[in-house]
Design goal:
The complex is a heterodimer.
Chain A: H1 2-5, H2 9-54, H3 63-87, H4 94-110, E1 122-124, H5 133-148, E2 157-160, H6 162-171, H7 174-184, H8 190-206, H9 211-228, E3 234-240, E4 256-260, H10 265-274, H11 279-288, E5 297-303, E6 309-314, E7 325-332, H12 336-339, E8 346-351, E9 357-362, E10 368-372, E11 378-382, H13 385-389, H14 395-412, E12 416-422, E13 428-435, H15 448-452, E14 458-461, E15 464-467, E16 470-477, H16 481-485, E17 492-495, E18 511-514, H17 522-530, E19 534-536, H18 541-544, E20 550-554, E21 559-562, H19 566-569, H20 583-595, H21 616-637, E22 646-650, E23 652-660, E24 673-675, H22 682-692, H23 707-716, E25 733-736, E26 740-747, E27 750-757, E28 766-773, H24 778-794, E29 798-802, E30 805-811, H25 815-831, H26 842-860
Parallel strand pairs in A: 16-17, 17-18, 18-19, 22-24, 23-25
Antiparallel strand pairs in A: 1-2, 2-5, 3-4, 3-5, 6-7, 6-12, 7-8, 8-9, 10-11, 12-13, 14-21, 15-19, 16-20, 20-21, 22-23, 25-26, 26-27, 27-28, 28-30, 29-30
Helix pairs in contact in A: 2-3, 2-21, 3-4, 3-20, 3-21, 4-20, 7-8, 8-10, 22-25, 25-26
Chain B: E1 5-9, H1 13-24, E2 29-33, H2 36-45, E3 50-54, H3 62-72, E4 77-82, H4 87-95, E5 100-103, H5 108-135
Parallel strand pairs in B: 1-2, 1-3, 3-4, 4-5
Helix pairs in contact in B: 2-3
Classes of the chains: A alpha+beta, B alpha/beta.
Amino acid sequence: MFSRLKIPFLKRRTQDESEVEELRIAFKARYHNFKLLLNANNRSLEIMAEMEEALQGIQPFGMTFIQALTTSVSTSVWQIIKQLNELAPGKYEKLYDRFKEIQKQINPLVYPKRSAQGGPLVLSFQDVDRNLADQVGSKIANLGEVKNQINLEVPNGFVITAQAYHQFMEYTDLQTEISRRLQTADMDRLDQLYSLSAAIQQLIIQAPLSGELETAIMEHYRQLVEKEGVRVTVAMRSSALGEDLAGTSFAGQYRSELNVSSENIINAYKEIVASKYSLPAVTYRLNRGIRDQDVAMCVGCMSMVDAVSGGVVYSQNPMDIHSHTTIINSVWGLPKSVVDGSTVPDLFIVSQNGPMEILYREIPVKERKFVCYPDEGVCRLEISGEEARMASLNDEQVLELARLATRLEEYYGVPQDIEWAVRPDGSFVVLQCRPLKETKREKVRDLKAVKEGVLGEVVFEGGVLASPGAAAGPAYIVKKDMDALQFPEGGILVAVQSLPRWAPLMNRAAAIITEQGSIAGHLATVAREFGVPALFGVKGAIDKLENGQVITVDTEDAKVYEGRVEALLERQKDPKNLMKDSPVFQTLEGAARLIVPLNLLDPDAPSFKPDNCNTFHDITRFCHEKAVQEMFQFGKEHRFPERSSKQLYYKVPMQWWILNLDDGFKEEIEGKYVKLENIDSIPMLALWEGFTAVPWAGPPPIDGKGFMSVMFQATTNRALAPGVRSNYGERNYFMISKNYCSLNSRLGFHFSTVETLVGDRPSENYVSFQYKGGAADFNRRLKRVTFLRDILEEHGFRVEVTKDNLIARVENHEKDFMKTALKIIGYLTIHTRQLDMIMSNEASVNYYRNKIEKDIRELLEPVAKTHEPHS
Amino acid sequence: MNGFKILLVDDEIEFLETLMKRIKKRAVDVTGVSSGEKALEEIEKNPYDVVVLDVKMPGMDGIETLREIKRRYPLIEVIMLTGHASVEVAVQGMELGAFDYLMKPMDIDELLYKLEDAYKKKTLHEQKILAREKDVGI
């Protein structure tokens, strides 16, 4: 007992020191937790802003973008919860449950599970009709319907199903690797997309099929040979699931392989599956908001037809459905060159009003045709003499084809787009059949300038209208893929052939001109879908244009003018927004509903608790509020002289208290006061500079002792701020570290909060400013925050005003920019005091706006400060 | 960032080498290995402060490796890296004590900030333990 009193002085002192040391570390560790929380909070708010921006629907985005955003926000929110629980162990565990519950609702939206469907890997055409579209794709399902229900001639064949596709993708975990590569690519860069597309296709082509799948395919091929009774080569065509999504055409996105021999079927299958990731297909899905995983590649294999002639028939004119005409494009040999736009085909227009008759025919010289090689593949043959000039269909065949088209349209009830061929025996065979998309076209052409023909100098005219409209821009001639990479935004695409290869340029091109091609080609279909005006089959266009030459394309009159012809352009509507209402867009909308809205607004309300966190934003808001409080309480409660709050000493003791969280002072301070020159907080000093830069001149100073006394009054006279409570109790506190500063203040009648992190990492920097209250009536308070908003927005802040509450944020800039922003905030905090009182007087408002703008200018450029000369 | 050691683990050699080169340019001590198993061997031989771990690797995957590192060396901080954004894996990783979960492609400066923050966390953690040991007179 006695010995206890005789604790040696020295020992006691070391124990104190180690206690102090432990406390110092504890403070440091807490501040580090707090800073990590702020970083995560900042990050999550940024992602939410990014989501809202994406939901404007201006830029296309894909599922990997949504998955990356949601994963990123989840990671941040989880970290926020974790850091808060480090600051206050065990106190906020409940938030993990809220997090998991919200996450559970987001997951099925962002990571939709494919319903396990099972079913056969390969199906014979005779077992297929339109009810099987979700197993074989709509293209083959329709063909099966034509064959088995409408009983029109369709080649024999079989289809490798969606089930087979999924098995192929899962067999070597291909899908995971593909998704990984998609995520790491920059979808805005066409050059990156080129190499990404090539790499993914290689990956697919090199992957093995399961033995089961390979056997099933070859067994069906054997059955096909048996049925035909001769040696069989096949045409293999894609038939993707998801092609039939509302309003999408998918024209020419995927590969077809013609005249494939038995030994190459498996390879061709993989190549067609790989074409899901062809550049046109990837950009098309991106622009149309179609989810990758919704597109399962089915592949139809049908006996190759050795076509005498072939082509496409539209059961109606897609650009004028009420004209009741059938449009036929036809070439010698295989129909391939009609759809890929590589030749100008014969054109027949057949009237459906009354007895069918041919209204119009255009028979150009057809210089080449595609035919089958005897063993495998197709080749292009030059045609000369009579055959080249002859129509590829006789009149009787034209009418028969028109009747066939009408029959299919009547069966389906909507206009059809049909690919067909004529067999050597003269019979027609249907190769593909799908709904035709109508294109709305404004036919009103009563512009005065058009009538008077004073539009400008015509560079050339001619060609067929492939997609309606008019547009102007610099001409850009594209011959090879390299040219496509350099294609300028808003340029006019000029090419020899209307190849589907140019489809990825569709969201950059203002219009398209080609020397060859027809309205039945894939590129025309895609152009109509994207609302890009297109003029095809303009002979010699390339020779008449130079790169960069600004022209106006008028597809309606098939004319190209020099320069911009405003009279034609002003009637143009805005470009189509293809993202909105797409599956991808809806996915983001759904996820954002669980992430972005903020319901927990008032930290003083009894409802401000974990149970009421219904979105990720609620959780971040709650955690942030609590974290700041926890930091403050810890600082206040620990009897630790170095870290206890100090009163600010600036010429005189001021009514501001400082709580140093970590490294906010230049040295450890023992006493009651801290001098401004001892403060080492970058953001606090910038804010202070804004406070004191310009003396406050009224409205009426409270006691006439000038600026400092006003600040004392405003912060000491509780009567001036009735009912407004600072979060930190009675006093105005700065919480600071070298890079952090938070300030809750009541100056005059309003309540404002500044929180900021400013350091050498631009991506972590932010200033957040909240402003509320006032003494005047609601309307005038509202006017004041609007007044403030205008000023802040001009200086780069993102501002949100709800009622008389203003929240402004600026982030991710370099240190100097952030310091400037803080000076402005500091200035405004002081100089908008009681401004609400004058907000109904227009003249006063203008006076103060001018004064404030001038003050801020001078504040930011102190060197340029000039005094008005005395007169 | 003086004197702190980073171990990068990724089976994609090309990515690994590029990343190491870029980190080394900033005068940070970094080593790279191509699998979870090799990572454990390496940590056994040399001390590391922060490990950057790819999630998807053949053999021991990222999550398994993380679990093992945290079991054997609880003070080492681990940053997960992934090419395939998965919330499930992210949360699982962080529950196992990962410092953060980053998605490729990431900004090199962002990664360095995370490395610094992770290292600082580790240092403070160690100091805390040290101070407490002193306090109880060890």
